[in-house]
Amino acid sequence: MAPHIRAPGDPQTYPWQENLTMTATTGATPSAHPERPGRSDGVCGEFTVITKIKPGHADALREDLAMLASGSADAKSRAALHQIGTLHDARHVIFDNDTRFMFASVFDGTWDTYIDDFAQTVIGANFDKVFSHSEGFPGVADPGVKDWFVAHQAPAGVFVSSYPDLTVQQIWKDQRVEEAFEAVLDTAEFRAALDNPANAELLATPAFQKLLEEASA
Amino acid sequence: MNATASSSAAGVGVEIDDVQSGALRPRPVPYEGKFVFLRVDDRHAGRALLRRLLPVTAGGLPGVDRSQDAWVALAFTYQGLEALGVPQESLDSFPRAFREGMAARAELIGDVGESAPAHWEAPFGTGDIHIALSALSSDTAQLDKELERARVAYEDTPGVQVIWQQEVHQLPTGRTTFGFRDGISHPNIEGVGLPGSNPQEAPIKAGEFILGYPDETGNLPPMPSPDVLGRNGTYAAVRKVHTNVAAWRRYLRANSSGAEEEALLAAKMVGRWPSGAPLTLAPEHDDPELAADPHRINNFLYRENDDRGYRCPAGAHIRRTNPRDSTIIGDARMHRLIRRGTTYGPPLPEGVLEDDGADRGLVGVFLGAHLERQFEFIKAEWVNDGNFIGYPGEKDPVAGHHGGTGSVTIPEKPVRRRLQNLPSFVVTRGGEYCFVPGLRALRWLAELED
């Protein structure tokens, strides 16, 4: 399917709303998904929640965040991020004199899939821990958790991506292809193949010329 | 002093006669010079020394009279200003990078490994360097005369010690130890009355180079207090850099198939040919005739004729450190510098590929009103990373610290060339951040009381 591109800041719709044969990878049936807040740009969307920190919990929250950033926990989280493969970036911010907490992220696909996926991994446990310091958090396994997130979501006024056509999966693939491509360019065999008249026809094709354009700098 | 220069320049009113000549005047060609570092053990002695050095210290632009073509300049480290008894309130008003000093910023600017402060030549980085005196001239007799006047001043002042000296001179070839002509580029500074070396460069605001005037952002550069101390001053990053000429030659030899290719590879890394002719204007062969023409040697931009770097690679030394109009992340005009490189030590005889153990290299002085935005930024982002040109992690092939694992990409059709396993060709032997006050500020320092 062609990338789904809208101007930055347009109201969000999801592919499944246009094409009911498209299904989410996990979780509830697509038709059950309500309209969700948050803006999108191309293939990715933004998710920002702002919550109230329970009185006296700011230091405990800070410790939990420090723990998440530490070596082994970080390695586990990164493995989970690879498994999920849809999160571009995320940040946790304590602000307003330790009274409020923001989680902001950019992800591919639909809101519901995003939340469902996270709940299944170590990220879900992390969410549980971090948001337990927020007032009213029902727990990530609670059936009402999505409603709670929606109620605390602060949609962006403007959201733009520098690569609206690229999902996290595509970015990873592009990186692998680029590394492999550069490695080929470094081989003497490739240079020799370019000089070989037998390959002249292939080299002259517009498709290969495009590749060579990238190969020259 | 040349009293007319300040009023002649486009109404901007730069008090050019109050700015030390060593700050703005391009390095003479040919040149001889000397750096002398002094330690002030007693603030009254330090001030007495300044009173004696004041008449020796030159301001303003060169006159028509060649006999004036020699000048002494004075610069101070943070510890130097402290040793002279500058009030704490004033010391605190200097920017952080200057207060911390170059050694403390070594990681940031890429002085790591064998270039780390732990390996620096004494007294660099020890806090003992208080005053840096430099003298440059194209005439040996003039230089000796000026240096003699300065020597009498500091040798007659007990309580002040000479702790380091370095003679610099142009090699007979007129080139650096690597074999390339340098000292070609000089920025076009608004209101100063000196022509820039690139006729295509729009004048850069005086505040990028001299304190007390608006800079490119439209604001005054942060200036130390009191006003009399800051105005018409600037900052200088002074560095002694050893050049490993044998390693440079061996690397070029090992990565090319003949003399012609070797010369081209070296030019691709530098961005100019040995004569100084830029690759952008002379992509195939050196062009000494072009290089001899002061109107042509620096008259070029990158984007229009060579956006992708087929002539001069984006990673070449001169293109990285002065990207002009290149397609880069950011705005090159915010990171201009006055560069003054001088050579020390004997040349490695032509054709020699083995190191002879001699110490050779350059003493570089990099001047500007913003240490962090200019010198430090250029080192951290442009010399020691390649993100801004789309080659993340790739460093300046000549000036970067590579440690044997560097790479450099040379655009070429049909397929780019990428050299691997670059060793470091330069090693930092030491460096200091200095404040270069205006002449009135020097007098203020000399007349401090208590």
Task: Please give a structural write-up.
The complex is a heterodimer of chains A (217) and B (450). Chain A is α+β, with helices and mostly antiparallel strands. Chain A contains ten helices and four strands. Chain B has 450 residues and is α+β, with helices and mostly antiparallel strands. In chain B, 25% of the residues lie in helices and 18% in strands. Chain B has a four-stranded antiparallel β-sheet. A four-stranded antiparallel β-sheet of chain B has the order 6-7-5-10, with no helix packed on it. The longest helix of chain B is centred in the N-terminal third of the chain and has 16 residues, at 140-155. The two termini of chain B are 32 Å apart. Classes of the chains: A alpha+beta (217), B alpha+beta (450). The interface between A and B is medium-sized, with 11 and 13 residues.
Poorly predicted runs of chain B:
1-11
Give the distance, in angstroms, between the N- and C-terminal Cα atoms of chain B. 32 Å
Q: Helical element count of chain A?
A: 10
How many β strands of chain A by DSSP?
4
Structural class by helix and strand composition of chain A: alpha+beta
β-sheet strand percentage of chain B: 15-25%
Q: What helical percentage do the residues of chain B reach?
A: 25-40%
Could you say which overall geometry of chain B the principal axes of the C-alpha atoms support?
globular
